[in-house]
Amino acid sequence: MFVMFEGLTPEEVKAIEAELAKLPPQQQDSARQRLASMRPEELKAMFKKVGPVCVFCKIAAKEIPARMIYEDADVLAFLDINPANIGHILVTPKRHTEFFTDLRDEEAKKIIVAMKNLANTVVKVVGAEGFNILQSNGKIAGQEVPHVHFHIIPRFSGDGHSFAWSHKKFSDEEFAKIQAEIVKNLTSGKKSAPKAKKKRELEKIKPRIPKY
Ligand code: 5GP
Ligand code: ZN
Questions:
Q1: What is the pTM of this model?
Q2: What is the longest distance spanned by two Cα atoms in the chain?
Q3: In this structure, what CATH number is given to the domain that contains residue 151?
């Protein structure tokens, strides 16, 4: 059922929806209607009582501590509480949003630029030989905290981690079909797919060896 919550921020609406989702399904519609008939001030008061429900929102709101590394108006970086290696950093938008694809373009740009600086710095500080940037979307992909975040994981020889995956086989036809389907959907959306000629040129570019 679609119900408007007037005068609330998207974060407040999301927090209320998260609370509604905890009710038995048969009670959710009537509870949602009851809430929607309340004045925004009442709902805001209720939101305050509920508070941010997500652990990274709580860190952003300074409600729970974290070992902060970087902060600007939109981006936060702090040490992972269960690091894969020394210097393991999490980089998140301050705004609650679940998936990478939910990020506003400006947020995405700021996060990527901040990550360049963070990765460069942490690699030097801990004397790593390389690093991984890992970002998971959805439980199936291993996302535990449903607030978009990037892991910067410094790597050392013999650290015992592996992000290797098994390889699946597809026929040329299957490759061609999926390529065409993705490109078709990209161009119909934002015209951001490279043109065929440009794509051929891009394919010729050799990967660069990173310098730390
Ligand atoms: P995910 O599996 O969702 O990609 O990663 C979530 C990460 O968040 C995990 O590596 C976990 O150790 C970290 N994490 C979970 N709760 C907290 C917390 O309260 N503080 C900090 N600093 N990291 C956390
Ligand atoms: Zn959050």
A1: 0.71
A2: 60
A3: 3.30.428.10
- CA nearest 19: which of 47, 61, 58, 55? 47
Residues designated catalytic: 149
With respect to residue 77, please indicate whether it lies within any of the assigned structural domains. yes
Same domain as 61, residue 40: no
Q: Is residue 199 part of a domain?
A: yes
Beta pairing class for 150-155 and 89-93: antiparallel
Range of the domain at 192: 172-204
Task: Please report whether residue 164 resides in a domain.
Answer: no
Q: How far is the CA of 156 from the centre of ligand 2 (A)?
A: 31
| Consecutive 10-residue averages of pLDDT for the chain (212 residues) | 75 76 76 78 67 88 96 98 98 97 96 98 98 98 97 98 94 97 78 48 52 49
User: For a substitution probing ligand 1, which of 54, 64, 67, 81 has the most ligand atoms within 8 Å of its CB?
Assistant: 81
Separation CA 26–CA 42 (nearest Å): 24
